[in-house]
Design goal:
transmembrane; Tetraspanin_EC2_sf; 64% helix; Tetraspanin/Peripherin; TSN36 protein; elongated; mainly alpha
Amino acid sequence: AAAGLSYVGAYVINTYKSYDNFLQDKYALLPAMIIICVAVVMFIIGLIGCCATFRESRVGLGLFLAIILVIFIAEVSAFVLGFVYREKVKTDVQGTMRSVFKKYDGKNPESTVVDYLQEQLHCCGVKNYSDWTTTPWFNSTGNNSVPLSCCRQDMKNCTGRLDQPQEL
């Protein structure tokens, strides 16, 4: 379990590099760091449990039980906090995404990240393609279209025009 959590934490940190313009708050990596720390702690606790079992130590097994109970309480607390603050996180991420979309010009690093995100997630805009109509890029192009990264991958001749939403 500790090895699996370590892999997940490292994967999140590695993936973060692709989306760091959307997550301007550097504390966004905190959950991944916590996951890695939990993996290390789990390994140590598992080692304590194994050693206590092999030695048949009542004190060691009692310590192991106490640690497991503390971890269970922490997990329940984390679940409750995640449930309570889920809307705040959603609102913050959408606000940050909208600000990055407003900086889109097709050339800057934010534009590259937006294009990458839309292609990888097969989406267009924050909620849908109509989000692009309020961006400076949309108004400056004058051709009533969204970036080509909004186009469905199976559409070869997609121009990103809003009068053909089935292609987006």
